[in-house]
Amino acid sequence: MTHSSATLDVLFDGKLRFFQSKRGYRFSLDALLLPAFATVRARDAVADLGTGCGVMALILARRYPRINVLGIEYQAALARQAQRNAQENGFAERVEIIQGDIRNIASLAVAQSFDAIVCNPPYRRVASGRTSPNDERRAARHELHGGLEDFLNAAAYLARNKGHVAFVYLADRAVELLVGLRARRLEPKRVRFVHSFVGAEASLVLVEAVKAGRAEVKILPPLIVYREGKEYTDEVAAIIRG
Fold first, then answer.
1. For residue 48, which of 2, 32, 71, 83 is within the disulfide window of CB 3.0 to 4.6 Å?
2. Could you give the C-alpha distances from 240 to 12, 198, 236, in angstroms and in order?
3. Which regions in the chain score pLDDT beneath 50?
4. Model-level pTM?
């Protein structure tokens, strides 16, 4: 990807800098909400499945200065962009990006070698919703190169016993996510629905599970994104500020 085909954007008052495609995939609010929600401890080994341009991996690396992160991305151009972003922010020694297919996870990483895993998989089935004419966006939004089941399988393979696995996903597919987690001994422990406004239906869900955890789940208060007038709520504004 050339400089002319990318923009350089900043997060957290310029503390993180990201190259993103002008016309292809660009990260959105969900990629900021999940790192704020996920449980990560000071020296964890962390995996980011479907890392895109690396935004979640780098947010976590900044927040926890002693962790190491492996980002896995199917699309070669995005994987290169994520590597570039890791270097741009001085995290190349702690953030490793590999281009690979999570459907073949055993060829990419060692089983049960991660303490925390974050996943922001494509939300849409191949034939559902509007399909972007841009290849990069289409693959990021639709299950062209792996669907929910594949991301669940990869997370279950990578997670150590008592490791944490966190997903952000469409609220209307929450049952699929919860059932799929439990079927793989990833016990849902925290669930939080995300609503654009007070009174609106949930658009997203944040779910964290623990591998081989006890059967006990907390349904957290809803996360409201906007006040009236489309100003961010205090909580979301604080997440965006970092």
1. 71
2. 7, 19, 6
3. 1-2, 136-140, 142
4. 0.89
